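hi! just following up on the protien thing from before. the input was this:
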Amino acid sequence: MSNKIFVDACFGKETPYTPVWMMRQAGRYLPEYMKVRAEAGNFLNLCHDPKKAAEVTLQPLDIVGVDAAILFSDILVIPDEMGMDLEFIKGEGPKFNDPITCEADIDRLIGGDEAASKLTYVFDTIKLLRTQLDERGDNKALIGFTGAPWTLATYMIEGQGTKTYNICKKMMYSNPKLLHKILAKVTEVVKLYMEKQIESGIDVVQIFDSWAAAIEPSKYDEFSWKYMVEISDYLKSKYPHIPIIMFPKGIPAFLDKVYGNFDVFGVDWSTPIALAKEKLGDKYVLQGNMEPTRLYSQEMTTEAVQDIQDVMGTSRHIFNLGHGILPDVPVANAIHFVKECQRVSKK
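and the predicted 3d structure came back as:
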């Protein structure tokens, strides 16, 4: 057994209650976060400042009472350090001013260890957090993370967030070789980036495939899942003691095609937890999957927590939302969610 309830739960071990955390738990719904972000000047400055990034990482532990901290960073720091021109535009979100359109664009990107080694501010944040968490002695786990290669590639090709993914998908069907070249280059950087996160002191890895649902089922393995599995295989071969969580959003139609050497499958809110349990519950611990907007109502939150608990019981489960917490959720309701998860699952 580890001394961290969250790590034990990831490996399916007995825990006194089912642990809980929330995606985007260090974020805009917390006034304390907004204060630090204002001091930093902008979002990227906050990511690049280890002291401030560590501070906002720890806020949800103290304010909301979650059982794990997730590193404050962003998935797009990877293509940023591969040499792409990233900016965050207020009200619009991230934008790359030099999207990838051809082989020459891929060749100019920095790859492998050279790119991963440039993310020193992330590793410095983790080292600082490791020291602070160990000093606190409250045995809360630290989750590190990355975007999946497909999700990263969508931003790198489209240049920004998209509802249609038409530029990426045009490449997928008309020039798959080019898309695979991008995915392979990103995968190499991600493997080394996550290895350096582990070496810096994280306890758990989560791989987010936020845009998994953009790919049709027959192409999902080829263009996304196999690259995620390659990352988990690489990490598991060297760090079997580090749990890996896979979170592909919006793929209920192909749960039976899920495979790989990882520990926890993150269930998004559009996937019935009972279906995920039926298809995957014997192979993986399940994480999730409350609909995030239920947090607007404490009554609806309690109902959902109880429903999930009724399906999952008190083992092989981690409570979480089925996607990130929204910025206008009252802090009191987030605290209520965490307390209810811990209450209903107490052994």
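The beta strands are 68-70, 86-89, 93-96, 141-147, 204-209, 244-248, 264-267, 285-288, 317-318.
The longest strand covers residues 141-147.
cheers
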